[in-house]
Amino acid sequence: MNENITKRYELLADKVIAGLKSRNMSGYYAATKEEALKKALELIPEESTVTMGGAMSAHEIGLVDALKEGNYLFIDRDQESDKRAAMLKAYSADVFLSSVNAMTEDGVLINIDGNANRVSAIAQGPKKVIFIVGINKICNDVDSAMKRARNVAAPINAQRFGLNTPCAKTGSCMNCKSPDTICCQFLITRYSKHADRIHVILVNDNLGF
């Protein structure tokens, strides 16, 4: 990657991490996917119960495979016959993995959900929440972050799930009330009441959607 671009992202990460700290959340910068994986595993003690929302970023850095192969109790909802029961286990898990649909330069996290299992676990339940966030998801402010979540992340997710929503056909949010909509709940995380609960690993790479 161009040295000037890398420097810009490092400075941007410093700003985001300072913003997270002011919101009682912890931030880390990883220059590569490998560094991100190492930091994530440092934050997850062995023998921990770990589960996740639909975080493609965790797959992309190799974290899901590492947890499955390591000394962890990883709850894979996709392998469970009762997916609702598997999702409910998230609330008592030691660690919940996620990404964000977007986040601001001063550390506000934006997430949209269809079933609410992801946003509800982020808001309350698991002892620790670890976000894997590509540098591509950082936006200037809450308004631009919300626009990214609705006009970039939501249409792509609707398309990859094969949903019959207007955004899957147009590529843009139509503010729909379709039965297939995945924009049912919006969570803005601007502060954490509990120190050492929310951790954000910023990765100098394009991850997720």
Please tell me about this protein's structure.
With 209 residues, this protein is α/β, with parallel strands linked by helices. The chain has one domain: 3-Layer(aba) Sandwich (Rossmann fold). 38% of the residues lie in helices and 21% in strands. The chain has 8 helices and 10 strands. The strands form 2 sheets. The protein has a 6-stranded parallel beta sheet with strand order 1-10-7-4-2-3, sandwiched between helices. The longest helix has 20 residues. It starts with a helix and ends in a 6-residue tail after the last strand. The mean pLDDT is 95.
Architecture blueprint of SSEs:
Blueprint: H1 3-22, E1 26-30, H2 33-43, E2 49-52, H3 56-60, H4 63-69, E3 73-74, H5 83-88, E4 95-98, E5 102-104, E6 109-113, H6 117-123, E7 128-134, E8 138-139, H7 142-160, H8 166-170, E9 185-189, E10 198-203
Question: In a few lines, what is going on in this structure?
Answer:
The protein is an alpha/beta fold. 38% of the residues lie in helices and 21% in strands.
